[in-house]
Amino acid sequence: MSMVSGFSRITRALGSRNYRLYATGNFLSLIGWWMQRVGVGWLTWQLTESATWLGAMACAELIPSMVFGMPAGALADRFDKLTVIRTAQFLAMGEAAVLAALTFAGITTVELLFALTLFAGIVSAFSQPARLSFIPSLVPAEDLSAALALNSSIFNLARFVGPAFAGIAILHGGVGAAFLGNAVSYLAFLTSLWLLRVPPEPPHEPSKRGLLGDMGEGMRYAGAHPGIGPALLLMLAISLLIRPLPELLPGFADNVFGRGADGLAWMTSMMGAGAFAGGLWLAQRGPLEGLTAATIISAIVFAVAILAFTATEMFPFALACIAVAGFATVAYGTGTQTLVQAAVHRTMRGRVLGIYGLIFRGAPALGALAMGAVADWHGLRPPVAAGAAVCLILLAWAYSRRRQLARELEAGS
């Protein structure tokens, strides 16, 4: 496949008016979201200087996905997805505005910060399955793979730009300025959502099983699927063992490398730059054939990069490791989502993607909490390195089964 034909897939996906509007508004909103994420991490460290609190704050943001991911997925299969997304953006904008006001007033405590971050996490948990399963309605089926990868690239371009803006905002206006930037950014996404022209979804037949029954059916479907089940289990291990690193970067920036808020912004931005490149690579890649092996190899590269990051004392080399890790984690995570989207039956999409979101967002929070607690006693490096080493063993097993998994995932639904 030539580079030209690869990037033609990207331009074709962006040629869809609905997807282009959604992607533009989403990008601007995500810049603000990353500004707030950096601000929350830095303010937590300023208030406590505790790795355990960093892990707890990650849990407040991400653990709701584990609690509400499955019911949110069932609801996404029942209700209009666009309405769910719009409502969630209004609530998230309100949370950011309150946090900015409290911080400017100088009355933010770590407990208040935790509560507001928990609220934002709950809102995100209920909207995520709707957002993931909404993308297929914005592009033709043949452009879905490119659209999903572009979505990841947009997220990670914002991951590069947002922390840089956060660093400038914190330097000149304090942490509250980063939170205010997030509140304002939601206006762009809400405008895009109201301009979308999406055909109404087919009427949803009332389920006789109830919400719990729908959730159970989704879990049984995912667990029994010979491709989706193993893919989600492998993602669970990776999310617990090596994906918590970004939540612990404030501690690495300050205690390990002695670089402060500026160092945190550099590390977060470099991870975002690598992730953006990984998303672009995946978007232009094309057919599903060979994607299973590529995702497993990407996860192996991720684990090796994390091991190298924990072993170095040189900040420039650490930044290079972080960039490689960013590339690899997006190639793995988005590759897995693409395979699952291709293999899942459309009537199960919301519920299965609810499980995916539960793992993708919730498991790193649990890992970060555990690693943060260990780090308070033994330092940040050992728990992160141990997680990467265990992951490499599991990935060696997965690589040995790559052909069997490919047969189940790459054939499509």
Set out the fold topology.
Elements: H1 3-14, H2 17-48, H3 51-62, H4 64-76, H5 81-104, H6 110-134, H7 144-173, H8 175-195, H9 210-224, H10 228-241, H11 245-256, H12 260-283, H13 291-311, H14 315-343, H15 349-378, H16 381-400, H17 402-409
Along the chain, the helix and strand elements come as HHHHHHHHHHHHHHHHH
CATH topology: Growth Hormone, Chain: A
- The CATH H-level superfamily is MFS general substrate transporter like domains
Q: Which architecture per CATH?
A: Up-down Bundle
Keywords:
413 residues; mainly alpha; Growth Hormone, Chain: A; 0% strand; disordered N terminus
Structure description:
The chain is mostly helical and 413 residues long. The chain has a single domain, classed as MFS general substrate transporter like domains (Growth Hormone, Chain: A, Up-down Bundle). Helices cover 83% and strands 0% of the residues. The longest helix is centred in the N-terminal third of the chain and has 32 residues, at 17-48. It is globular and about 50 Å long. Mean pLDDT is 83; it is low at 1-5.
